[in-house]
Specification:
Elements: E1 2-4, E2 10-12, H1 18-31, E3 35-40, H2 42-50, H3 52-59, E4 63-66, H4 69-77, H5 87-100, E5 105-108, H6 112-125, E6 131-135, H7 146-158, E7 162-165, H8 171-183, E8 187-190, H9 194-199, H10 207-211, H11 215-222, H12 224-253
Parallel strand pairs: 3-4, 3-8, 5-6, 5-7, 7-8
Antiparallel strand pairs: 1-2
Length: about 250
Amino acid sequence: MQFSFPDGNAVRINCHDSAALLAAVRQKLRDGQGFAIATINVDHLQRLAEDGRFRRAYAAHDLVCADGNPIVWLSRIAGRPVALAPGSDLVLPLAAEAARAGLPVGLIGSSDESLALAAEAMVRAVPGLRVALTHAPGFPFDPMGEEAGQIIERIRASGARLCFLALGAPRQELFAIRARDALGNVGFASIGAGLDFLSGHQRRAPALLRKAKLEWAWRMLSNPRRLFLRYAKGFAILPGHIRQAAALRRARRD
């Protein structure tokens, strides 16, 4: 499944499901290759349409999976179906891949307290996991700025080989590409609120609501001032992407 933009940049979902993503990560960790993982959702699609720098960074990601049911539905309309692979669900499986490879991880996110609690939860859940680094950047964080360069050097010194980025879009995706290219042998996974869910600083939607495809409603109602406009913008762009997906399906038939 591919999303194309007028400037020629394209974002392709190249991991059909979480199993494919984990297999690719396992191989890259084994080979000592750096990589960047993005988990695309409707909010990202809306931002991609407006921000050329974000588009270029996203297009440079090595592994992209579907984080949101609308993305899955669009893939089905296009005749190129992918499965849901939410970033929040990938944190522990990715950490387990690092632990099996004997490689330490780093956590870059919202606050020192949240990261410490998330690290404790991850170590409890994943036997053998080593957390080599936690760092909460200052606010507002500039992924192209001086502090970002300092974080890259801290990652290098720590020996972390897989870093989880919970910095929010587009900051985490921009930083992931800069850091991957600077370090060469470190993987970066942009997982949004995944660490805050593990730390308990944010409460995830109950399983029943997730099964009913209503996690977005839970999140919006939990923080309407911040999220209502974001979701409204996301829904507004869906008709255009539905038309694009339908056109892709027709092109495949011709």
